[in-house]
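Researcher: Please translate sequence to C-alpha coordinates.
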Amino acid sequence: MRRQLTVQERVLLHLHDRYMIENAWDAPIEHSQSGVSNAVGVHRRHLPRTMRRLEDSNLITIELRHVANTKRKVQVYSLTDKGQKMASDLLKSILIWEVETDNGCVLLSSIYTRSSDILEYLYPPTNMYESPSIGRLAELVKVAYEDGILTTAEERLLETAAQELHVDRETLERIKERISNDKSNGLESRLIRTALMTALADGYIDKNEEKILRRIAVESGIDHEAYSTLVERTLSECLSLEERAYFGAMEALNWSTDESHSFIQDLRTALGIDSEQHDRLSTLTRAKLN
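Model: Translation complete:
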Protein backbone atom coordinates (compact mmCIF):
# COMPACT_ATOMS: atom_id res chain seq x y z
CA MET A 1 0.00 0.00 0.00
CA ARG A 2 1.31 3.43 -0.93
CA ARG A 3 2.47 5.62 1.94
CA GLN A 4 4.68 8.59 2.66
CA LEU A 5 8.40 7.82 2.72
CA THR A 6 10.50 9.02 5.62
CA VAL A 7 13.49 11.28 4.98
CA GLN A 8 15.80 8.35 5.79
CA GLU A 9 14.05 6.16 3.20
CA ARG A 10 14.33 8.91 0.60
CA VAL A 11 18.07 9.15 1.30
CA LEU A 12 18.40 5.39 0.82
CA LEU A 13 16.62 5.61 -2.54
CA HIS A 14 18.75 8.56 -3.67
CA LEU A 15 22.02 6.77 -2.88
CA HIS A 16 20.86 3.32 -4.00
CA ASP A 17 21.91 3.49 -7.67
CA ARG A 18 24.89 5.75 -7.09
CA TYR A 19 28.40 4.55 -6.33
CA MET A 20 31.66 6.22 -5.35
CA ILE A 21 35.07 4.93 -6.36
CA GLU A 22 36.76 3.48 -3.31
CA ASN A 23 39.68 5.54 -1.95
CA ALA A 24 39.23 8.15 -4.65
CA TRP A 25 40.25 11.77 -4.06
CA ASP A 26 36.92 13.27 -5.13
CA ALA A 27 33.24 12.37 -5.34
CA PRO A 28 30.23 13.29 -7.49
CA ILE A 29 28.15 16.23 -6.27
CA GLU A 30 25.13 13.91 -5.87
CA HIS A 31 26.86 12.32 -2.86
CA SER A 32 27.47 15.63 -1.09
CA GLN A 33 25.25 17.25 1.51
CA SER A 34 23.83 19.71 -1.00
CA GLY A 35 23.26 16.97 -3.59
CA VAL A 36 21.38 14.75 -1.14
CA SER A 37 19.34 17.60 0.33
CA ASN A 38 18.27 18.77 -3.13
CA ALA A 39 17.19 15.25 -4.09
CA VAL A 40 15.20 14.38 -0.95
CA GLY A 41 13.62 17.81 -0.45
CA VAL A 42 15.19 18.65 2.91
CA HIS A 43 17.07 21.83 3.72
CA ARG A 44 20.81 21.31 4.12
CA ARG A 45 20.84 22.41 7.75
CA HIS A 46 18.37 19.64 8.67
CA LEU A 47 20.24 16.85 6.87
CA PRO A 48 23.24 16.13 9.19
CA ARG A 49 21.02 14.71 11.95
CA THR A 50 19.41 12.28 9.51
CA MET A 51 22.77 11.24 8.11
CA ARG A 52 24.23 10.65 11.59
CA ARG A 53 21.31 8.36 12.42
CA LEU A 54 21.87 6.40 9.24
CA GLU A 55 25.57 6.14 10.04
CA ASP A 56 24.83 4.98 13.60
CA SER A 57 22.62 2.26 12.07
CA ASN A 58 25.50 1.21 9.81
CA LEU A 59 23.47 2.09 6.70
CA ILE A 60 25.82 4.73 5.28
CA THR A 61 29.45 5.74 5.49
CA ILE A 62 30.50 9.36 5.78
CA GLU A 63 33.81 10.54 4.29
CA LEU A 64 35.54 13.81 3.54
CA ARG A 65 36.28 14.31 -0.15
CA HIS A 66 36.54 17.05 -2.71
CA VAL A 67 33.63 17.75 -5.03
CA ALA A 68 33.73 19.91 -8.15
CA ASN A 69 34.72 23.55 -7.57
CA THR A 70 35.23 23.29 -3.82
CA LYS A 71 38.47 24.40 -2.22
CA ARG A 72 38.10 22.19 0.84
CA LYS A 73 36.87 18.69 1.49
CA VAL A 74 33.20 18.23 2.32
CA GLN A 75 31.15 15.38 3.72
CA VAL A 76 30.03 12.81 1.17
CA TYR A 77 27.80 9.80 1.73
CA SER A 78 27.52 6.29 0.34
CA LEU A 79 25.56 3.18 1.29
CA THR A 80 27.12 0.31 3.19
CA ASP A 81 26.31 -3.28 2.18
CA LYS A 82 23.59 -3.23 4.82
CA GLY A 83 22.30 0.06 3.44
CA GLN A 84 22.29 -1.29 -0.12
CA LYS A 85 20.23 -4.30 0.98
CA MET A 86 17.75 -2.14 2.86
CA ALA A 87 17.46 0.22 -0.12
CA SER A 88 16.93 -2.75 -2.49
CA ASP A 89 14.22 -4.19 -0.23
CA LEU A 90 12.57 -0.77 -0.02
CA LEU A 91 12.68 -0.42 -3.81
CA LYS A 92 11.06 -3.85 -4.29
CA SER A 93 8.20 -2.91 -1.98
CA ILE A 94 7.66 0.42 -3.75
CA LEU A 95 7.71 -1.05 -7.27
CA ILE A 96 4.43 -2.88 -6.62
CA TRP A 97 2.62 0.27 -5.52
CA GLU A 98 -0.31 1.27 -7.70
CA VAL A 99 -0.27 4.82 -9.01
CA GLU A 100 -2.79 6.89 -10.93
CA THR A 101 -1.95 7.74 -14.54
CA ASP A 102 -3.85 9.01 -17.57
CA ASN A 103 -4.41 5.33 -18.43
CA GLY A 104 -5.80 4.48 -15.00
CA CYS A 105 -4.13 2.64 -12.12
CA VAL A 106 -0.85 0.92 -13.01
CA LEU A 107 2.06 -0.57 -11.13
CA LEU A 108 4.83 1.91 -10.48
CA SER A 109 7.29 -0.61 -11.95
CA SER A 110 5.62 -0.16 -15.35
CA ILE A 111 6.68 3.50 -15.33
CA TYR A 112 10.05 3.56 -13.56
CA THR A 113 12.49 1.04 -12.15
CA ARG A 114 15.51 3.13 -11.10
CA SER A 115 15.55 4.37 -7.50
CA SER A 116 16.41 7.97 -8.37
CA ASP A 117 13.64 8.15 -11.01
CA ILE A 118 11.10 6.74 -8.56
CA LEU A 119 12.17 9.22 -5.89
CA GLU A 120 11.67 12.10 -8.29
CA TYR A 121 8.29 10.72 -9.39
CA LEU A 122 7.01 10.31 -5.84
CA TYR A 123 8.46 13.59 -4.60
CA PRO A 124 8.61 15.96 -7.56
CA PRO A 125 10.00 19.42 -6.87
CA THR A 126 6.81 21.43 -6.29
CA ASN A 127 8.75 24.66 -6.19
CA MET A 128 12.07 25.12 -7.95
CA TYR A 129 12.93 27.88 -5.50
CA GLU A 130 12.55 25.94 -2.23
CA SER A 131 16.28 25.29 -2.42
CA PRO A 132 18.23 28.57 -2.71
CA SER A 133 20.92 27.00 -4.89
CA ILE A 134 18.39 25.45 -7.29
CA GLY A 135 16.45 28.71 -7.31
CA ARG A 136 19.49 30.73 -8.33
CA LEU A 137 20.38 28.21 -11.02
CA ALA A 138 16.79 28.18 -12.34
CA GLU A 139 16.89 31.97 -12.65
CA LEU A 140 20.09 31.72 -14.71
CA VAL A 141 18.56 29.07 -16.96
CA LYS A 142 15.46 31.21 -17.45
CA VAL A 143 17.56 34.19 -18.52
CA ALA A 144 19.56 32.00 -20.91
CA TYR A 145 16.33 30.71 -22.46
CA GLU A 146 14.70 34.11 -22.89
CA ASP A 147 15.32 33.97 -26.65
CA GLY A 148 14.45 30.28 -26.76
CA ILE A 149 17.99 29.27 -27.74
CA LEU A 150 20.72 27.86 -25.52
CA THR A 151 24.10 28.48 -27.15
CA THR A 152 27.26 26.47 -26.51
CA ALA A 153 28.72 29.34 -24.47
CA GLU A 154 25.55 29.52 -22.36
CA GLU A 155 25.63 25.74 -21.86
CA ARG A 156 29.18 25.98 -20.48
CA LEU A 157 28.22 28.89 -18.23
CA LEU A 158 25.26 27.00 -16.77
CA GLU A 159 27.35 23.88 -16.16
CA THR A 160 29.94 25.97 -14.32
CA ALA A 161 27.22 27.71 -12.29
CA ALA A 162 25.69 24.32 -11.37
CA GLN A 163 29.05 23.09 -10.12
CA GLU A 164 29.59 26.25 -8.08
CA LEU A 165 26.12 25.87 -6.52
CA HIS A 166 26.63 22.13 -5.91
CA VAL A 167 23.67 21.21 -8.10
CA ASP A 168 24.10 17.89 -9.89
CA ARG A 169 23.81 17.48 -13.66
CA GLU A 170 20.51 15.58 -13.51
CA THR A 171 18.88 18.44 -11.63
CA LEU A 172 20.31 20.96 -14.10
CA GLU A 173 18.89 18.96 -17.02
CA ARG A 174 15.46 18.81 -15.35
CA ILE A 175 15.49 22.59 -14.84
CA LYS A 176 16.50 23.16 -18.47
CA GLU A 177 13.79 20.82 -19.74
CA ARG A 178 11.09 22.48 -17.63
CA ILE A 179 12.04 26.00 -18.67
CA SER A 180 12.62 25.12 -22.34
CA ASN A 181 9.09 23.66 -22.47
CA ASP A 182 7.61 26.88 -21.09
CA LYS A 183 5.74 28.33 -24.06
CA SER A 184 6.25 31.87 -22.72
CA ASN A 185 9.93 31.56 -23.63
CA GLY A 186 11.46 31.70 -27.09
CA LEU A 187 8.56 32.98 -29.21
CA GLU A 188 11.04 34.63 -31.59
CA SER A 189 13.13 31.49 -31.99
CA ARG A 190 10.05 29.38 -32.69
CA LEU A 191 9.02 31.90 -35.36
CA ILE A 192 12.44 31.70 -37.03
CA ARG A 193 12.48 27.91 -36.73
CA THR A 194 9.09 27.73 -38.46
CA ALA A 195 10.33 30.06 -41.20
CA LEU A 196 13.47 27.93 -41.62
CA MET A 197 11.51 24.71 -41.88
CA THR A 198 9.23 26.32 -44.46
CA ALA A 199 12.19 27.62 -46.47
CA LEU A 200 13.82 24.18 -46.38
CA ALA A 201 10.69 22.38 -47.57
CA ASP A 202 12.08 22.28 -51.12
CA GLY A 203 15.62 21.66 -49.93
CA TYR A 204 16.85 25.13 -50.90
CA ILE A 205 17.08 28.59 -49.37
CA ASP A 206 16.81 31.18 -52.12
CA LYS A 207 17.86 34.83 -51.87
CA ASN A 208 14.39 36.10 -50.95
CA GLU A 209 14.07 33.51 -48.17
CA GLU A 210 17.55 34.45 -47.00
CA LYS A 211 16.54 38.11 -46.66
CA ILE A 212 13.39 37.24 -44.73
CA LEU A 213 15.26 34.99 -42.28
CA ARG A 214 17.90 37.61 -41.61
CA ARG A 215 15.30 40.32 -41.13
CA ILE A 216 13.29 38.24 -38.63
CA ALA A 217 16.44 37.50 -36.63
CA VAL A 218 17.60 41.11 -36.52
CA GLU A 219 14.16 42.51 -35.65
CA SER A 220 13.71 39.87 -32.94
CA GLY A 221 16.93 40.97 -31.27
CA ILE A 222 18.52 37.53 -31.62
CA ASP A 223 22.28 37.87 -31.76
CA HIS A 224 24.64 36.17 -34.20
CA GLU A 225 25.69 33.26 -31.96
CA ALA A 226 22.13 32.41 -30.90
CA TYR A 227 20.88 32.58 -34.48
CA SER A 228 23.74 30.45 -35.79
CA THR A 229 23.02 27.84 -33.10
CA LEU A 230 19.34 27.72 -34.06
CA VAL A 231 20.16 27.42 -37.78
CA GLU A 232 22.68 24.63 -37.21
CA ARG A 233 20.27 22.61 -35.07
CA THR A 234 17.42 23.07 -37.53
CA LEU A 235 19.60 22.12 -40.50
CA SER A 236 20.86 19.08 -38.61
CA GLU A 237 17.29 17.84 -38.21
CA CYS A 238 16.56 18.31 -41.92
CA LEU A 239 19.64 16.57 -43.33
CA SER A 240 20.69 12.95 -43.52
CA LEU A 241 23.78 11.79 -41.64
CA GLU A 242 25.83 11.85 -44.87
CA GLU A 243 24.56 15.29 -45.82
CA ARG A 244 25.39 16.65 -42.35
CA ALA A 245 28.93 15.28 -42.62
CA TYR A 246 29.42 16.78 -46.09
CA PHE A 247 27.84 20.10 -45.13
CA GLY A 248 30.07 20.32 -42.03
CA ALA A 249 33.20 19.60 -44.03
CA MET A 250 32.35 22.20 -46.67
CA GLU A 251 31.42 24.75 -44.02
CA ALA A 252 34.88 24.26 -42.50
CA LEU A 253 36.32 25.07 -45.94
CA ASN A 254 33.90 28.01 -46.33
CA TRP A 255 32.77 26.34 -49.58
CA SER A 256 35.85 27.92 -51.16
CA THR A 257 37.40 24.75 -52.56
CA ASP A 258 36.48 23.93 -56.16
CA GLU A 259 34.16 20.92 -56.25
CA SER A 260 36.37 19.32 -58.91
CA HIS A 261 39.25 19.12 -56.42
CA SER A 262 40.28 15.52 -55.76
CA PHE A 263 39.65 15.86 -52.02
CA ILE A 264 36.06 17.00 -52.63
CA GLN A 265 35.51 14.25 -55.18
CA ASP A 266 36.79 11.61 -52.77
CA LEU A 267 34.58 13.01 -49.98
CA ARG A 268 31.51 13.02 -52.23
CA THR A 269 32.19 9.47 -53.35
CA ALA A 270 32.65 8.25 -49.78
CA LEU A 271 29.42 9.91 -48.60
CA GLY A 272 27.39 9.33 -51.75
CA ILE A 273 26.78 13.03 -52.42
CA ASP A 274 25.87 13.86 -56.02
CA SER A 275 26.09 17.24 -57.81
CA GLU A 276 22.45 18.08 -57.10
CA GLN A 277 22.95 17.51 -53.37
CA HIS A 278 26.16 19.56 -53.46
CA ASP A 279 24.33 22.49 -55.07
CA ARG A 280 21.42 22.21 -52.66
CA LEU A 281 23.63 22.03 -49.57
CA SER A 282 25.69 25.01 -50.73
CA THR A 283 22.56 27.19 -50.67
CA LEU A 284 21.87 26.39 -47.03
CA THR A 285 24.81 28.48 -45.86
CA ARG A 286 22.83 31.55 -46.91
CA ALA A 287 20.68 31.14 -43.83
CA LYS A 288 23.57 32.19 -41.61
CA LEU A 289 24.06 35.81 -40.66
CA ASN A 290 27.20 37.60 -41.78
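Researcher: Any highlights?
Model: The chain has three domains: 7-122, 132-180, 187-287.
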